[in-house]
Automatic annotation (TrEMBL):
Family designation: Belongs to the SMEK family.
Protein name per UniProt: Serine/threonine-protein phosphatase 4 regulatory subunit 3B
Source organism of this protein record: Galemys pyrenaicus (Iberian desman)
Chain segments carrying region Disordered: 828-851
Sequence ranges assigned to domain PP4R3 EVH1-like in this UniProt record: 75-171
Amino acid sequence: MDSGENPVDLGTLGSPEDSTDPFLSSIFYCDFPDLPPWSLQPPRPPAQFQRRQLLLSEDMRAAQARVGCATAGRRHLVKVYYLNEEQKWDDLGMGHVSSTYVDRLQGMALLVQSECDGSVILESKINQDTSYQKQQGTLIIWSDAEDHGLALSFQEATSCCEIWEDICRIQGKDPCDEITRDLLEQLEEQRFDQIPEPGIMIELPTCEPSKLQQIADIVTSVLPSPISKERLALILQNENYIRQLLQLFRVCEDLNDVEGLRHLHEIIKGILYLNKLSLFEILFSDECIMDVVGCLEYDPALDQPQKHREFLTHNAKFKEVVPITDCELRQKIHQTYRAQYIYDILLPAPSIFEESFLSTLSTFIFFNKVEIVNMLQEDENFLPEVFAQLSDNSTDDNKRRELMFFCKEFCSFSQTLQPQNKDALFQTLTKLGILPALKIAMQRNDLQVRSAATDIFTYLVEYSPSMIRAFVMEEAQQLESGDLLINVVIEQIVGDADPELGGALHLAELLRSLLDPDNMSLAPNKCERSEFLNFFYKHCMHNFIAPLLTITAEDKCESDDILKFDKNCLNNYQTAQLLTLILELLTFCVQHHTYYIKNYILSKDLLRRVLIVMKSKHTFLTLCAIRLMRRMIGLKDELFNRYIIKGNLFEPVVNAFLSNGTRYNMLNSAVIEMFEYIRVENIKSLVAHIIEKFYETLESIQYVQTFKGLKIKYEQEKDRQSQIRNNLHNILYNKIFRRSAAKVLVKKEEKHFGENAEDDKAAVSPLGSDFQECYDKCIAVTTPEENEDTTGLPKRTSGGLKYTTPFAAGAGNGTGNPHCNRAVALVDYPDDEDEEKEEETPPRKKPHISS
């Protein structure tokens, strides 16, 4: 495709002819080519980029060796374009881009490595003064230090957004903006940089006490200008100026020169705000760090200097729980701690205009933590020795406390790792036995040890609940139920001595996370949800609800009346708090474990026990009980409804509602909402039960229409049922009556037929065998089957009586009558005509008798 076929407007500042600025004409007013097909062989880059590839590859390998895979960032497929001298975009190739820290550039950079051979296509440092622009959702465009236009074309918009967020985070900008820096400000700075004015040159005076104010003014004046900041950073780095300033600090402190010390405070703070990694390496070195802290003690805003050096020297002790043989690792730990202390304690919180001043310092601390974690993980002896001592029951309490503190901080550092590296780390910790070590630590009497173990357990649960569940189920096959990790956690919840139950609340949230079906895997060959829930309800649930069952035991509660209960223990605040935790988790189980918790509640008669706690003076506990019952009703499970009706479990709710009186509070609202839900959803069995049992008591409540509405629903259902019964009675009556009537008619036909036959025999004399044969054929009587279905109407197949007989007078005098042959039907059925057609073959006629 021709590169100029579909130009893309990369700016909105006017046409290129209207501007003489090379930056605008080269970057924002150029024809960006349509993206060619994604081929596997990228074109060769220009010569100046080819010469740099080997060196950049070596630098990249060195940088990755230092910070590990975690610093490489996430990789995204892109094409790299370079603006040539003819203001056309050349395709440099296709590869994977990542935001990575590079030692050679001393900062974060955009690195593109070829998809084919891994060679470096592009390496561009993300500078604070570089203006990046995102366009069309898949393009990022900028100009490098030599004013060469560069562009990244992403295959996916999501990849472009992630890299754009990295750039904005490093520059301290809002990712919602599509330009990281004001273009007019950048162009003005570039023009100003090209003017050879003597005032733009930065020259620091010699380090003397009399020049400190001048030095402080210069350092603070360059902070608004990125170009000036770069130049000042180069001067400070190359001329060993920082060490001279720190030597001057010792002199001023010995002379008690307060004014000079305050100027040094402004100078050192300004150097930190230059936000340069090369300067951080000097400031945080072992020989300089304490003097830097000393300078920051003399804040002009404070009347007296703070004693931070004394704290770092005497209070902050570095303890090696297991000897660290790597000197570089030990130095890195010291450096990171002091840098973090300066960042958090000594430097003021930056304003919205200074958010980017310390971005590199936070990045410096971040990568130091990554290095520490990687170096500890690579040590073959350190971590195994730590967990060996933690798993040993004979380890001294003080030693165990230090080991747990180390593990807590180590897991905290691990949160900075990339997901892939974090997976490898936690898998290593699991193999080394961190979970058995935590179980031992949680059973110790030392509160600090238990607290640290809880924090580590939190990291593990947040990382992978499935890993904890798998360990517990595997553990259940080897140990008794009481020794399981989950039961140890439950024991810590139940036995928390804190009146506010701070630790119990935290552990209850972790237990809820383990019981949450949403984070349980459902593989074709393994259903984690069913396996773990079966395990929990069999081995652990009884331990969790044991306090509830103990407080509401049968010897304290009469079986006929669940309200007659000694409520002194329920009025204890700590007991009420514990029961609240239990009821909250039971409510969660009702919502998410429908089948398992239903069987458990019905088998243990658990709701009856729960409603006993409504006699407590603590309203929050009463509300928890109502919430559990409301959740059960919300399932619309008829088994739950029948269980509530059979146990008359609305009675304690109604009594609590009436005891609350006319107070408009959460208890009042919760009860009314529950009854309103039953009315709106028209749960018929519960509506009938409430009206029949409690309407006389609730009828007087008129400030809401809930109970009146329940009564209306009840009457409507009652009328409907009455109408159904009446209709059913009519249907059954009609069926039974018609059947009986049909039988009566059949009997009448038979009786009538019998009388006529006797009369005929008496009036007509036999005429011989031939006449008798003819007579028999002329008479056809069909009766209904006696074994017809009793639920249907009687069905007649033939309902008439047909016979042929002469008049007696005609027989006597020998005369014939034209009407001597006739058919008589006693009951006219619609199917008589069909049967008459079937019987149209008449018997042989008898000759008339003539005179």
